[in-house]
# Entry
Amino acid sequence: MNEEQLAKWKEQRRKRRNSLNHDDLLSGIIKGDLQALSSGITLLESNRKSDQEEAQKLVNSCLKHSGKSIRVGVTGVPGVGKSTFIEAFGKLVVAKGYKIAVLAVDPSSEKSGGSILGDKTRMNDLSVLENAFIRPSAAGKSLGGVARKTRESIILCEAAGFDFILIETVGVGQSETMVKSMVDFFMLLMLAGAGDELQGIKRGIMEMADALIVTKADGDNLIKARRAKKEYENAIHLFPANENGWIPKTLVASALEQYNIEKTFDTIESFVNHTRINGSFGRNRKQQDKYWLHETITDTLMSNFYSSERLVNEIAVVEKEVIEGRISSFEGAEKLMKIYNHE
Amino acid sequence: MNEEQLAKWKEQRRKRRNSLNHDDLLSGIIKGDLQALSSGITLLESNRKSDQEEAQKLVNSCLKHSGKSIRVGVTGVPGVGKSTFIEAFGKLVVAKGYKIAVLAVDPSSEKSGGSILGDKTRMNDLSVLENAFIRPSAAGKSLGGVARKTRESIILCEAAGFDFILIETVGVGQSETMVKSMVDFFMLLMLAGAGDELQGIKRGIMEMADALIVTKADGDNLIKARRAKKEYENAIHLFPANENGWIPKTLVASALEQYNIEKTFDTIESFVNHTRINGSFGRNRKQQDKYWLHETITDTLMSNFYSSERLVNEIAVVEKEVIEGRISSFEGAEKLMKIYNHE
# Structure
C-alpha cells in the first residue's frame, strides 16, 4: 500500500466509523437493512472503548425486538460437509419464505489464522439471496469474548427480523458446549464409517445433540450412511433421557441430492412444537440467560485474577511446586490468593 | 442426654481434640494405624480455624509419603448394588494381600441428611478386615469443600500405606466429574434393562468410564445382563477414543456369585500397565494436580463474589432483569462486577 492508498483507506475507515452511530444503526437494523446489521456486528467486534459503549447501547435497544427466531447450532468435524449442508438447508428455508442468518463460531481462528466461514465463496448460492445473511467467524482473544460477540450478534439478527439463526462451529473444542448453551436446537453432522472420523469429535458432544445427521448419504455412500444412522440410533437409546422429553432424532441426508433436507427442517419444527407445548422452550432460554450472566461473572473474575500484575511470575512457580508434590493443590491456591489479595 | 452424660461426652470430645496433634497423628498414620488415620480425616473435616491449620500441616507432611496407590472411582445409580459390589471387590483385594480404603463422596448428604456410606453395616464383612478402611461420606457446604476433603483424605490414606483407594459416588450429580478428576480409573456400574434405570445417570457419564460393569449378572438376570453388556460395548465403539489409548471395557459381574470380580481386578491392573507404559498414568496425575490448583482458585474467587455483603440483594435483582430481557446477560454481569469492585 502506498501513501496515497493508505490515506484513502484511513479516510474510508473514518467515514465508516462515523456511520456506526447508535440511532442510524438501530433504525436500519429494525428495517432489516443488511448493511446496517453488518455494521452493527462490526461495532460489537471492535475493541475500541468508545465503540464498545456504543455497541452496548445498540444491543440494549435491540433487546426488546429480539427473541423471536429459532436458534440452531450446527457442528461436525472438518470434512463432514457443514457448509454444503447449511447452504442446502438455508436455501430451503428461504424458499419457504423465511429469513435465515448464519453466524460462525471459531475460537481457534485467532491462532490458526483461518476462519471456518472466511472463504465466503463457499456459500455462494445462499449468500446472494436477499433473505439470507452470512457472517464469518467472530474472532476474539478468549472463548468468553467469542461467546459474548456471538450472543450479541444473535440479538442484532433477531431485531433485524431473521426467523432462523444458525450458529456453525467446528466439532473439535470447547466451542460446542458454548454453542449448545446459546441455541434452542443442536445438530451434530456425522460421517458414515463411524471409525476414525469420530476421533476429532470431543467426548460428550453426541449426548448434547437434538439431531444427529449422517451426511453425504448419496451414491455408493447411501448404504453405509443408513447403517451408521442405525448404529447411532441404537447408541442414542442408551443415553439418559433429556429433561425436555425430546428423543434425539437420527437422519441420513445428502445436500448434493437434496435428500432429507426438508426432513431436517420438519425435525426442527416438531422439536419447537414439542418444547413449546411442554414449556421447556422458554424455560431453556431463561436458563441460558441466567447461565450467561453467571458465566460472564466467572470469566471476569478469572481474567482479572490471571492477568494480575502481582501474579505474573508466581503462578508458574506454584504450579511447579504442586506438580512436583511439594505442596498440595489447595495450599498452592491459598498461596496465590494471598498474593492476589495483598495479604 | 442428661447433664451427666453431656458432661462426659464433652470431656471425651475435648480429649479427642487434644489428641489430634500433628506429630502424633503423622507418626500414627505412617505406621498405618487406622485410629490415627480416622482422627486425621476428622481433623480435615473440622471447620474450626485452629483445626484447619493443623490439618494443612498434616496434609503437607503426608504429601511426601503419598502417591503410591491406585485410585479408583466407582459410580452408579442407587439400586445398582454399589456397596455389595465394592464389598466383594474389597475382600478380593485384601485376599490378594493388598490394603484397600473406601471413601464416599456424597455432596447431597448435607441436604438430604442421608449419606451413602452412613449405614456402615452395609459393608460389614469388609469393614472388619484389618487391611480395609471404610470412611463414610465427607459432608461439606459446597462441592468444592467436599472435593477438597476427599482429595486430602486420599493423601492421608496413601501415607497410611493403602494400595487401593476406592472413591464411591452416586451417579446423579456433578460429583462424578469431580471424582473422575481425582482418580486413575473410573468404573460405572449399570443395571441390565438399559431403559428407565438409566434416567438417573447424568448425560456424559458413560463417556467418562474406563470400565462399564453390568451388575447383578446372576440367576435369571444373566442373559439380560449379557445382552446389555453387548449393547453398551457397541455404543462404546461409537465414542471418540480416549487420549490415553485405553478402550473402555465392558463386563457383566455378580457380587452374589463372585462372578467376574477377579476380572474387574485384572481390568484395573491391565489399565494401570497400559497407562504406565505409555506415560499417561503419570501425566494424568500431574494434570489432575494442576486442575485442582486452578479449580480451587476459581472456587475461591466465586465464593468470595457470591458471599459479598454488597451483593446480597443485587444478584436476584439483576437476574430478574436479565431473565425478563430488560438487560443483556453481559450488561448484567458488568453491573454486578461494578458493585462488587466499589466502582
